[in-house]
């Protein structure tokens, strides 16, 4: 699974007035086509619960923290995101679930494509079958 996910450092400019981080097309290995963010996630709620066939995503905890549960059909890995200057690259074919959102957390998602419903695998059993065919 390690070739399908990667923690990427986001350039950080530090100064006494506050820090600044920039995400550009040189930060992520794809052209940015869509940006959205999750916030006000209620305690105990989960987001995600799907995989993509083609789309790449880059997740950043802009504020607070949350866990990303990643599954490739054989193994599971949990990554906690809690730094606004690091992001998690998730390549196609990885099931993801976002959970354990801290109060006030904000999850930024940068995607390689616009929303295309046909690219989603929303049932885990279907994901396992898809993974076994690959």
CATH class: Mainly Beta
Number of H/I helices: 1
Beta strands, count: 12
Portion of residues in beta strands equals 35-45%
Evaluate the radius of gyration.
15 Å
CATH architecture: Sandwich
CATH fold descriptor: Jelly Rolls
Described by its quaternary structure, the protein is single chain
How much helix is in the residues? under 10%
So, the CATH homologous superfamily?
A: Jelly Rolls
Gap from first CA to last CA: 13 Å
Average pLDDT confidence is 95
Low-confidence stretches: none
| Shape by Cα distribution | globular
For the largest beta-sheet, the strand count, sense and barrel status come to:
5 strands, antiparallel
Number of domains: 1
Protein model, in words:
The protein contains one helix and twelve strands. The protein has 134 residues and is mainly beta. It has one domain: Jelly Rolls, CATH 2.60.120.10. Strand 7 and strand 8 form a beta hairpin. The model has no long low-confidence stretch (mean pLDDT 95).
Strands, helices and their partners?
Layout: E1 5-9, E2 12-13, E3 20-21, E4 34-39, E5 47-52, E6 57-63, E7 66-71, E8 76-81, E9 86-90, E10 95-99, E11 106-111, E12 120-121, H1 124-133
Antiparallel strand pairs: 1-9, 2-3, 4-11, 5-10, 5-12, 6-9, 6-11, 7-8, 7-10
Would you summarize the structure shown here?
This protein has one helix and twelve strands. By secondary structure, the chain is mostly beta strands.
């Amino acid at each position: 699974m390690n070739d399908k996910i990667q923690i990427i450092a986001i350039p950080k400019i530090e100064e006494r007035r506050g820090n600044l981080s920039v995400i550009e097309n040189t930060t992520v290995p794809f052209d940015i086509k869509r940006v959205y963010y999750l916030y006000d996630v209620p305690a105990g709620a989960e987001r995600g619960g799907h995989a993509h066939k083609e789309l790449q995503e880059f997740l950043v905890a802009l504020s607070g923290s949350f866990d990303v549960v990643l599954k490739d059909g054989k193994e599971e890995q949990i990554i906690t995101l809690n730094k606004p200057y690091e992001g998690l690259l998730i390549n196609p074919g990885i099931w993801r679930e976002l959970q354990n959102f801290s109060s006030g957390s904000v999850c930024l998602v940068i995607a390689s494509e616009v929303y295309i419903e046909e690219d989603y695998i929303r049932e885990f059993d279907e994901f396992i079958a898809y993974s076994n065919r690959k």
